[in-house]
Amino acid sequence: MSVLPADVLPGSALAVEEAASGAVELGPRARMWPALGAVYRAQLSRARVARIPLLFVATFQSIGIMILMRGVVDGGGEAESVVAGSSVLVVAFVALNLLAQYFGQLRASGGLDHYATLPVPPAAVVLGAAGAYASFTVPGTVVTAVFGCVLFGLPLTHLWVLVAVIPLAGAALSGLGAALGLLAPRPELATLLGQLGMSAALLLGVLPADRMPEVVRFARDLLPSTYGVEAFARTFGADPDWAFVAGDLAVCAVVGVVSLAVATWAYRRAAVR
Hints:
about 75% helix; mainly alpha
């Protein structure tokens, strides 16, 4: 006959007290970066089915806008604004509009319950989905920028700045789109808010700022994509002021961190309801 200590028996008072106090853990928590990578790959595989229609719509929408503006704008600073705004509009179409629709539908269909059962941090879910959707904007943004430069006769020398513009503007717009989708009470409202945000990026980003009223310029300064547009547009000059370019990109980075933090809070809020 073996003798066991009383504290290891399942029904002992000490075991019950440990379980009640939360000392017994069901499993280890997933680390942030591995969880982020897993969510990103899963979302990338899911969104890959709609990749070709997505790239077609986002890219040819921006190209069509530049062709229409070609009859109004001849060149100079206005052409730089049109090309930069149309390029960033590809990012806004996906990161703001489609991501708001995705999270709105995910919340309405109960899909957040699936992620809530997984041992992954909420930030990994938001960042993984935002990164996957923003990744599809890279080819369309590059094609739009090259086409616009050829159409308006702008130099192609500093197109490498898109390496910074796409992720930083994408982060700011993705966080805003995810927050709109998660905070909207109904998926229809999330779709509406996403489309309104994309329309604002179109009107305030593509149209030259010099032709806007003062009130509209103030609203333009509040839009996160504006600073990505300004950073890209400044590089078309013969001698770009890189300090201003870095400043605009820094604003995009700060807004991206804030908007993604708000989206993470909105995810936690929606997941527990």
